[in-house]
Design a protein that fits this description.
about 375 residues, alpha/beta, Rossmann fold, Dehydroquinate synthase-like, alpha domain, six-stranded parallel beta sheet, two-stranded antiparallel sheet, 13 helices, 8 strands, about 45% helix
């Protein structure tokens, strides 16, 4: 058998496990003297993080990310970091914090403004210099941002989300401590968990599959199916939390090296247009995208292997070797209902928004990874089914 060529990159070092936050003082021993700590508004373990940094002899400048990062927020953080002469960055929070941390650490060591480097709305220039050292510490199990090479930035004026993208954005160190997710409320557990679940499903059927990513997805898909609802129903269930943190990590590793698909192709534009959690949007779209993709790819000659991948997903999530693709679609819909995931209409989306959403989605990077090219009619059908 001829081995398929592939390219794989990830963070410089990954530390995973219960209580791993405690090793932070060791891993930053040889970093600079002053840390820019980027964190969310409310995280119970933030005091412990700051204490660890103090014990390690580091000075600290704190920057709070109160919402998904936008251009103004990132540039404000960069100004504060430069004024305070910070020489490394620690991101402590959910996906928004992770994206902000990567963008700030990159721009601290590169000339010009953020807009110069953004896709779609900016100049799309390549970063010239490596980022400042960045330690990513996620406190939710969702985006896998701690091992990805892009940062998603909102551009409110254009009502879009776009990416700053380069291998330099891969964090120097990723510390994934499942105990940090125990305080995450059920609604956030549902939203972030469905994002993580989607991010092990889409890379398994993308146009850019590779053997390493396939291994991650084969492990992550059944693990997510078995643990997400448990983590949602009982936030103190540490084993379920640990497993979902691992699914999130696997999803980040997968999407960074094999791309995503139509779920995220839609989710970026919708997230830029409407004030809705990214994972909630993904959850609302996933069943319809899976169904329409499977239908369309089954009509393409010579794509039996790809069709079989959809069948495998259905078998893994249902636990039934005789499961059909439709069984898998229905299982995901049932999971979303159990997690009380709203449809797109409940997020403020109407059919009058479809044309704009579709136009923007076709230009997104994620849509380029979809296993089959979908027509405007098919994209509209997905949106209708997800309402």
């Amino acid at each position: 058998m001829t081995m398929k060529d592939f390219d794989f990159a990830t963070s410089g070092r990954i530390l995973f496990g219960r209580g791993k936050l405690d090793v932070l003082s060791e891993v930053i021993k040889y970093y600079g003297k002053k840390a820019l700590v980027i964190k969310g508004k409310k995280f119970p373990n933030a005091d412990k993080l700051l204490e660890i940094l103090h014990r390690a002899g580091k000075n600290i400048q704190i920057f709070v990310v109160p919402h998904e990062p936008d251009i103004d927020l990132i540039e404000q953080s960069i100004r504060e970091a430069r004024k305070s002469q910070c020489d490394f960055v620690v991101g402590f929070g959910g996906g928004a914090v992770g994206d902000a941390g990567k963008a700030v650490s990159a721009l601290l060591n590169n000339p010009g403004n953020l807009i110069d480097y953004l896709e779609v709305v900016g100049k799309g220039e390549r970063l010239k210099n490596p980022s400042f050292p960045y330690i990513a510490i996620p406190t939710t199990a969702g985006t896998g941002s701690e091992v990805t090479r892009n940062a998603v930035i909102r551009v409110p004026k254009s009502r879009v989300k776009v990416s700053l993208r380069h291998a330099y954005l891969l964090p120097s160190i990723a510390i994934i401590d499942p105990e940090l997710t125990l305080s995450v409320p059920p609604t956030v557990t549902a939203s972030t968990g469905m994002d993580a679940f989607t991010q092990v499903i889409e890379p398994y059927v993308t146009k850019f599959t590779n053997p390493v990513v396939d291994m991650f997805c084969r492990e992550g898909i059944p693990l997510g199916a078995k643990n997400l609802l448990s983590a949602y129903e009982n936030g103190a269930h540490l084993e379920a939390r640990e497993n979902m943190a691992y699914v999130s990590l696997l999803g980040g590793l997968s999407l960074a090296n094999a791309k995503l698909g139509a779920v995220h192709g839609f989710a970026g534009p919708i997230g830029g247009m409407f004030n809705a959690p990214h994972g909630t949007i993904c959850a609302a779209l996933l069943p319809a995208v899976m169904q329409v993709n499977a239908e369309q790819i089954s009509k393409v000659d010579g794509e039996e292997k790809k069709v079989n991948r959809f069948k495998e997903i259905a078998e893994w999530i249902t636990g039934d070797k005789a499961a059909t693709i439709q069984d898998g679609v229905e299982w995901i819909s049932s999971l979303a209902a159990s997690l009380e995931i709203p449809g797109l209409s409940e997020l403020g989306i109407s059919s009058s928004d479809f044309a704009s959403i579709i136009d923007k989605s076709k230009r997104s990077s994620s849509m380029k990874g979809n296993p089959v090219t979908l027509s405007d009619d098919q994209l509209e059908r997905i949106l209708e089914m997800s309402m």
